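Hallway conversation turned thread

IA: we were arguing at lunch whether anyone had actually written out LRRNT domain-containing protein end to end. Turns out nobody had. So, for the record, here is the sequence (344 residues) and right after it the structure tokens. Reply here if something looks off.
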Amino acid sequence: MNYNDNLRGQVANNKPQYQPSAQSLRLIILLILVMGVAPSPALTAGCPARCVCDDQLVVQCAGQHLTTFPTEMPLSTRQLIISNNRIIELPPLQLNYLSDLVYLDCSNNSLTEISESTFGNLRKLAYLDLSFNTLARIEDRTFGPLSSLVMLRMTDNPGLWDIHPDSFAENSALQVLDVSRNNMTVLNISSLIGLPTLRSVGLSGNPWSCDCDNEDLCLWIQVEGFKFQDEGQTVCGGPPDLRGQRLGELGLQLRSRCHQGLGSWDYLFFIAIGFVIFAAGTVSAWAIGVVMVLYERYVKKKSEQMDPEDEVEQGAGPGTGSGGGHDANPHGNGGLKNTGHIVV
């Protein structure tokens, strides 16, 4: 009994020794919550199914056989990789919640369409990869909201044949653009040529049409060939007599060919200019005629107002002349009288 009593006494004495540790742990957790120290936002906001999220704000969903855009995405995500899936659409509403996103890899999916609203709130995005999809057209201002975009890869879209001239007009930070291995025949460079930081352009693998529609493109490649990373493989797909020739070699040739004669639009332009000049001359002649008629009427009216004044002056003139004649006539009359006296 004494042994058992002693053993229970030791257990009873040891119990209080563990209570401070539990209380300390609870206090530490409470202190962390009060001070606002929480785990990584990427982990706190959850992570999409079949994706991996780390404390570096990277969400990795590559090769997970996804058919839709991942849901429950951490709002603080900075890098999102959804490549090698079967996603057919980028939902603007979900994507634009990721306002801190700087890196987006959507390559090797089944995307068919993107628009200005797709990237409406991604103003920090610097890298975008849309390669190996099924895009067909790039509309006006599709990339307009991406004011920080530095690199855009849009290669290997077999159906991509048209890029709007103003698609890149607002991407002043763009440095690298790759549209290789698509189905493009014509590219309007009006917005591209004005980008101040553009230093690398990929155009190879497209069936370029080497005619007057691509005259500016060929001249650009010829003048600034250093910007084109695959200039040697950027060749004509037509017409047959130029197939396989490098675009950079045809700039001056196309310029001379496209401007050696006048087309129907040129003649219409000259006719319009002639009509404008004729109309301007007619209006000018009419205006001058009106001014001359008004001026002639003014002069005639002025002369008519002056004629009565001349008549008044002429009427008063003889009276004044008789007075003068009275001063002069005595001498004349006196001469005649004297002459009369001499005769008598």
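OS: looked through it. The first helix runs from residue 2 to 35.
IA: good, adding that to the notes. DSSP finds six helices and twelve strands in the chain.
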